[in-house]
Amino acid sequence: MGEVRVEILTEISRQRLAREIFDLVWPLEEGTQITPNLLQAMVHSGAYLAGAFIGDECVGAAFAFPSKGNDDHLHLHSHMAGVLDAYRDRNIGYALKIHQRDWAIAHGYELITWTFDPLVSRNANLNLTKLGVEIPYYYRDFYGQMPDVLNAGDASDRAMAHWHLNSARTKNALAGATNVKSDAPLLLAEVNGAPVAQEIASQGREVRVALPRNITELRSQNLELARNWRQHVRAALESRMASGWKITGFTQDHCYVLEEKDAHS
Prior knowledge:
The protein has helices at about 10-25, 35-45, 90-105, 120-130, 170-175, 215-220, 225-240; strands spanning about 5-10, 50-55, 55-70, 75-85, 110-115, 135-140, 160-165, 185-190, 195, 205-210, 245-250, 255-260. It is an alpha+beta fold. Helix 3 (about 90-105) links the parallel strand 4 and strand 5. The longest helix has 20 residues, at about 225-240. It is globular.
């Protein structure tokens, strides 16, 4: 594979390359994920749009726009980032995120946020282990029913990632941090491919929540089991995160590590 190159896409003809990536990653029965006029308006108004290239071929893209949080502080919200199936697991998503971080810092941002499906182990590992994000919020059915093929038939629960661009946590991850190790009790276990809720006797300040190995593949093979995983992961995460627990790590055996707020204070 040739070297990956990430470029900002400002011209309308180049923006089309990103739209094609989004439509291939999240295919609709008809229409497009984002219309050309809207994308051009947002890029012209300060949004971020980049493509990842190998040679002349665009194989991934990322789109983000300025946003304000509850603290009224301006940050960058990354709405879409995708890589073509044939180029997955080659660190292209990571390259896009590093480029996005560099662009954000150059434009005065200290924080990037984004949502992701908390059932997707690959994304959880990228976000927590390789990038060093914190995940403070869980939202039930955040987007409502989604029409694209990847998400159709399932609730759109999402976790919200907070990437503090200059934090020690981020810098340690970018320097090559590895998966966390934890022997915390399992709030949710994986047994023969199925989710099994566990009773936890102790009131510790750290727990683990298991994920399926490949939820995208599971949806295509056994939608009922995939929905069962959704309900169990929601039950394990939603109430704890609403009370202040945060997802702070991901283990090599596909488990979230949750810590109670102020656990290290």
